[in-house]
Amino acid sequence: MSADGVTLEASNIHKAFGNNHVLKGASLSVARGEVVTLIGASGSGKSTFLRCLNLLEMPQQGELAIGTHRFAFGKGLRAPVDAELAQLRENVGMVFQHFNLFPHMSVLGNLTEGPVQVKGMAQAEARALARDLLAKVGLADKADAYPSRLSGGQKQRVAIARSLAMKPDVMLFDEPTSALDPELVGEVLAVIRSLAAEGMTMVLVTHEMAFAADVSTRVGFMNDGVMAEVGSAEEIIRRPRSERLKAFLSRFHEAK
Amino acid sequence: MYAWDFAALKPYWPLIWQGLMITVFYTVITVVTGLVIGLAVGILRTNSPRWVSVPLRLYIEVFRCTPLLVQLVWVYYALPVLIGVDMSPAMACFVALSLYAGSFYAEIFRGGIEAVDKGQWEAGRAIGMRRGRIFRRIVLPQAIQVMIPSFINQTIMQLKNTSLVSVVAVGDLLYQGTVITAASYRPLEVYTTIAVLYFVVLFPLTLVADQVELRMGAHR
Questions:
Q1: Interface contact B125-A114, CB threshold 8 A
Q2: How many interchain CB pairs under 8 A, A with B?
Q3: What is the pLDDT of residues B87-103, one digit of tens each?
């Protein structure tokens, strides 16, 4: 951790899939305890950028520093090996749009898998931790259920608890409510809100503008592969000044 | 009207029993080696550079697309000429049946592994798991669920395919059948008995398969 309290620093991230240049030098710096929401049109690169933060996508150029983990990408630079990536990801949790729970394990098994297999925690300790986390996301009674028996909102809360079980320094959320029925969105947002209140450092990609405005310490607006504007929720969502940001937000207001 | 006389087979029961044991023995050992080959080849094919995956593909297609009978004869008669190593009929059968089974199992494993959602790999990576562990703990258990029906099917075929070892004079059930037919002049009784024995061994296997599939699929 650097002295200025910055826990995550991504600079000049480039990523192309074939000829499709998705990220063209996107940067973001996040201080400990911050909640940063990334907004932007689909195709603006926000999900790809988020996936570069735990290196599920490998940038072709740029630098990434999270806690003590430092990576530089570019021609001639050594790509990080599996072990280095695994170490980074122990400290950086991620919640996916489609939950990606392990269907062959119970809810409890989903939560204990990381602590036991990756951290070498004792089963009993991992189970106690898992039960605490399930209570926290309001699913204490579902410990022995299998994922197929849960609603979408419950699945996503389990997925959040699974990430928390690794005790990460940073949590990444990739459109965590986009795959949910509207009536189930609230329960997931409530869990994320409570994490924010506890001071968890988070980066979220979301289309829930009201939620973003409410929960974020800062909001980043991505446009055409770069972080076009970063500022407080007030500056970015409630009083946008640039034309393209106004145009993007107006589409949401019409939809409401 | 043909007069069935199964009692005529009575003196030959020890021979039939011996043949059945040989059949089961070859099935069990070649299913095991076939699975080992199939798992290794199946994994390598899903995740390897071309210089590895192309020769493996060639192996699979050669063994899938030629008759097992030809493979057995070829391994027994032609391979010794090529590599200068004599093989007993038993060894030749073991090698050919294992490679044959391996080629089919490899495709079943590959299909099963590729059927697991990419998000499962990502979820494993996101909690700091390394590749080998994700494969063992997350992907393979799910792949096996998908594979069970094809796996059972292939294993049933494998038991029936062992009947071909009789061409190189390995004394399996069918081979003993031909011997007994020659001695007893009772082909209908002999082959009927053999069919019943194959059925009695394989049918319970299909029932077990149904049960396993039900239990493993319970959480889907």
A1: no
A2: 70
A3: 899 999 999 999 999 99
Q: What is the predicted ipTM?
A: 0.92
From chain A, pick out residues whose CB is under 8 angstroms from the CB of B131.
82
Alpha helices in A39-79 (DSSP H): 46-53
Closest by Cα among A130, A14, A144, A8 to A66: A8
Alpha helix locations (H) across chain B? 13-46, 50-64, 68-73, 79-83, 89-115, 118-126, 131-133, 140-161, 173-184, 187-216
Give one DSSP letter per residue of A238-253, joined into a string: IS--SHHHHHHHHHHH
Q: Which strands make up the sheet holding A201-205, listed edge to edge?
A: A92-95, A170-174, A201-205, A35-39, A218-223, A226-231
Tokens, residue B72: 């057995």
Q: Which of B127, B130, B137 sits opposite A82 (nearest CB)?
A: B130
Asked if the Cβ–Cβ distance from B128 to A83 is below 8 Å, we say: no
Residue A26, phi then psi, degrees to nearest 5: -80, 140
Scanning chain A, the segments in alpha helix (DSSP H) are: 46-53, 82-91, 107-117, 123-136, 152-164, 182-197, 209-215, 233, 243-255
Q: What is the pLDDT of residue A2?
A: 42
Structure tokens at A27: 């940067």
Question: B122: nearest CA in chain A?
Answer: A56
Task: Mark residue A144 as left, alpha or beta (left: phi above 0; alpha: psi -120 to 50; beta: remaining).
Answer: alpha
- Per-residue pLDDT 10s for chain A (256 aa) are 444 567 899 999 999 999 999 999 999 999 999 999 999 998 899 999 999 999 999 999 999 999 889 999 998 899 999 999 999 999 999 999 999 999 999 999 999 999 999 999 999 999 999 999 999 999 999 999 999 999 999 999 999 999 999 999 999 999 999 999 999 999 999 999 999 999 999 999 998 898 999 899 999 999 999 999 999 998 999 888 889 999 899 887 655 4
Instruction: Determine the Cα–Cα distance for residues A114 and A116; give it in Å rounded to an integer.
Output: 6
Nearest to B127 by CA among A165, A127, A145, A228: A165
Chain B closest CA to A46's CA: distance in Å? 18
According to DSSP, residue A235 is labeled I
CB < 8 Å to B148, chain A = none
